[in-house]
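So, who can interpret the following?
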Amino acid sequence: MKQFRIDDMLLYEDDDIIIINKPAGLASADERDTSRPSLLGLLRARNPGTRLCHRIDRETSGVIVAAKHFPVHRVLAEQFRRRQVRKIYHALVWGRAAFAGETIEHPLRTISSVYVPFHLDGEEVSPVSTFRAVLDTRRGRPSQTIVTTLSTSRHFSLVECRPVTGRMHQIRAHLSREGYPVVCDPLYRGAAAYLSELKRGYRHSGEGPERPLISRVALHACAISFELFDRKYTFEAPYPKDFAALLKTLAKYDGF
């Protein structure tokens, strides 16, 4: 099992807050499977009073804010509730998107779901029981995401997403609904991407089946801004290696 260390994720720390660049594959909070670590568990091992101010999906990488003390958490949690925190995500999606600051508004409802996670040919995988967000105009909760296209290639687009609300899987569900599913997101119809689909004359030289250019949801929480005790904070989380390598490959072989 992969080992996660807070020092490897740390972006900033003081007496009140700790800012983390969470890697993909690490859950934000404790889950039913207690054999796997969570970010919250790792943080509380470092400082027992730590509380997360928000969460991002296990499959998503990027910036997370945690409070070291309850009074700080109460202040920040209220800002999140009032939608005063500015969050920016970058997503690589299938298709040539042309968003120019449009607001996607689809009411979302969470339902239970079963899906088969990404796997290489020949691997044995079991279906995963989870939850997913679905459009529901009658019972769904209002959900808004502001989307801007940053760049495009022959097959893909890099888009900036600013969630106004904070529904479960909101960005992934909204982009899929608009016809631009996030790369390698099977829960929302996002197929994996392969170099053989992009590079002319590609020859697979390794053993076993070809591996995808990225093997998790291509979504990264890259920046967050908020105010605490009359001081404004902005933190940026650099792309992780897999996301940066994906974009570099697309720049070389797909006209990004």
Q: What stands out?
A: The helical segments are 6-9, 39-46, 70-81, 170-177, 241-253. The domain at 6-253 is CATH 3.30.2350.10 (Pseudouridine synthase). The two ends are 34 Å apart (CA to CA). The chain is about 20% helix and 30% strand.
